[in-house]
Design a protein that fits this description.
The complex is a heterodimer of chains A (306) and B (129). Chain A has 306 residues and is an alpha/beta fold. Chain A has eight helices and six strands. Chain B is globular. Classes of the chains: A alpha/beta (306), B alpha+beta (129).
Chain lengths: 306, 129
């Protein structure tokens, strides 16, 4: 076998095994999207109810003056929670989130604020470490399959930072950058402001309009106590929702990236097979012409001697 | 007679949903029984308490251990939103008992919560302590 043919065959074998890996990754991601979407759906009832309860409380005007609902002017710091993934192989997933976060932080700096990054996911942490940029805190190891404890831990940390006085490094705003799962084909990086909550927004929630006026609740033990306990829960539930959305998006993007990688590998295999066939054919043709040439030469030389 | 429509949910999933005759939940100010026609209420649940639901189809009472969260009642709809909840039937009795034994000797504020949770878990599983 010729040297050229051998190298081409080896490349085909390598590409084929690579295609097998990406294909397997694609299948894994597809099966996990379904699970992730289901978890997004399962978190729906809780999120809906807690939003309703908050709207009810706020419409009773108990929230006025609550620290979690008021704009702070004493601190210039703004926390930015960036939700990235732990693993790569997901196309532009992390790049999109990080670009969006960079945009947000530039905007905050232009407004004279000081953004403080908080990072979820190893890829984001790696990006910051590589550039030797500072960040306040990191959480890793759960991006593709978050648990509620994770959301709880993040929520608690952020609320604690928000409640700190300005001279101890308290933050005045909390923003989140995450990837929203719009559909199987579309996932977009989104920026949301988590705190302070915007009261107007919750009053105009579409759900509420369909359900008409909220009932006049009695509160046990008191409206203030209920609001105090509910708001951190609400924040955790929002972060939980965003983590789940991000996880579903991660799987969807990984599936797509892996699908195009598999397709590309198959194209490469097809092209290489053609080249290999041609090389083999060329080799055979050459051998035949060598044999025929040799035979002719032999015939001619023996004819001359007779 | 009117029935209550009950939803018991945690952030991760819906734990139980259906029609019921009565729901008993424990707030900071004491236990509260909710029957059809109850006035709208929004109450905080005690961290480490038991919520009991009496289903409308006369089947056995459902007990669940809850830690943290709140419940809301409005026009015969009861939503119990627990930060963490476990149905009595899903509780591993031996593990719950071992946990109870482990925390019952401890002291301090965190231990008190852990003890309440462990006790609630056993009570939800139908054990008397």
């Amino acid at each position: 076998m010729g040297a050229q043919l051998r190298t081409i065959r080896r490349r085909i074998a390598t590409t084929r095994s690579m295609a097998k890996i990406t294909r397997a990754q694609e299948l894994i991601a597809s099966s996990r999207i379904v699970k992730a979407q289901q978890r997004v759906r399962e978190s729906g009832p809780y999120a809906r109810q807690i939003t309703r309860a908050i709207s009810a409380l706020v419409s009773h005007n108990v929230g006025v003056g609550h620290p979690l609902l008021t704009e702070r002017s004493d601190s210039k710091r703004a926390a930015v929670l960036i939700i990235t993934s732990d693993r790569g192989f997901a196309g532009g997933y992390n790049a999109n989130v990080i670009r969006e976060a960079e945009g947000l932080m530039t905007m905050l700096r232009e407004q004279g604020k000081e953004p403080v990054p908080y990072i979820v996911g190893r890829k984001g942490v790696g990006w910051y470490r590589f550039r030797e940029r500072e960040f306040a805190e990191e959480w890793t190891g759960f991006s593709d399959n978050p648990r509620f404890e994770n959301a709880e831990a993040i929520g608690r940390t952020l609320v604690r930072e928000f409640e700190k006085p300005a001279d101890e490094g308290g933050v005045a705003e909390i923003h989140v950058v995450y990837t929203e799962f719009v559909s199987m084909l579309t996932q977009t990086a989104q920026v949301r402001r988590l705190l302070p909550l915007e009261i107007e927004e919750s009053e105009q929630a579409p759900e509420e309009q369909t359900q008409g006026v909220l009932p006049a609740y009695e509160f046990e033990p008191s409206a203030e106590a209920v609001l105090d306990a509910l708001l951190p829960n609400y924040i955790e539930s929002r972060i939980w929702h965003m983590l789940l959305q991000a996880a579903a998006s991660e799987h969807a993007q990984r599936r797509r990236a892996m699908k195009s990688a598999t397709d590309n590998a198959n194209d490469v295999i097809e092209n290489l097979t053609r080249v290999a066939n041609q090389a083999r054919q060329a080799e055979i043709t050459q051998e035949i012409s060598e044999i025929v040439g040799g035979a002719n030469a032999l015939a001619e030389s023996s004819a001359g001697s007779e | 007679m009117a029935k209550l429509h009950v939803e018991l949910v945690s952030p991760e999933r819906e734990i139980w949903a259906g029609e019921a005759d009565m729901v008993v939940a424990k707030t900071i100010e004491g236990e509260m029984g909710i029957m059809p026609g109850h006035a709208p209420v929004l109450g905080l649940l005690v961290d480490g308490s038991v919520v009991r639901i009496k289903p409308a189809d006369e089947s056995e009472t459902i007990s669940a251990m809850v830690s943290g969260g709140f419940f809301s009642v409005a026009s015969d709809e009861v939503s119990v939103l627990a930060e963490y909840a476990e149905l009595g039937g899903e509780i591993d009795l031996e593990a719950a008992r071992a946990e109870y034994e482990r925390v019952s000797g401890l002291e301090g504020e965190e231990a008190a919560v852990a003890q309440r949770r462990a006790r609630a878990r056993l009570r939800a599983a139908g054990q008397e302590i």
